[in-house]
Amino acid sequence: MENSKNKLAKKRLILVVEDEEDIVRLLSFHLEKEGYSIYTAGSGTEGLLQAFDYLPDLIILDIMLPEMDGLEVCRRLRSNEKTASIPILILSARKEELDRVLGLELGADDYMIKPFSVRELVARVRAMLRRMENMAAVQNKENGDVEKYFVGGNIALYPERHQVTVNDQPCSLTYKEFSLLQLLMSNAGKVLTRELLLDKVWKYEVDIDTRTVDVHIRSLRQKVEADPSKPRYIETVRGVGYRFTAGGE
Ligand code: CA
Asked: Could you give all domains of the chain from N- to C-terminal order, each with its CATH number?
């Protein structure tokens, strides 16, 4: 069932921006085998042009690139409306580069440190594309308008109604918990730093530090996770922050 559905579906387009030819060949081979169409670019500027031309479903982006580095490419993709929501998987040779990516809040959706396992990368790509399909949903309201909402596994969040359901049962959240969950779900798959969450949810409140975020995440998990000690949706990314995943991936 799953397989035949995949074959009928439109071929997903992936852009690989990487200057190391061995890696490009390896990725192309394995991703094509998975049924994806691959475009490749060997420099930052070429990658950016191709991204705007083809509007791929996902971009795999190396950081160290000739002409324009991956960080700048990422920034430009995010600042353009056409490409702002394309999922980006960053490849990096060094952990320190990643700190910059996360620190700058460039909005990469996931990352892998070289050398990486190709199987792992293919699995991440598959999960990222699936998240894109699952997360934003619309439903028709009685008056004919459509209402946008977010779904992840058994959790649904309706921004307009300010309502959350877990297993179709209403779940009562505080204002801050709701804001936190909305921010996490609307950025599903992305790691959000504690500082960013603090900034967006608590804004200019004084005497608040990042531990406040942890406290609220804990209470949120109590309400939406089946087993808060083994969270399935709200993942802790050690030393960085939190990430919403659709669960079971
Ligand atoms: Ca490189």
From this structure: 4-133 (3.40.50.2300), 150-244 (1.10.10.10)
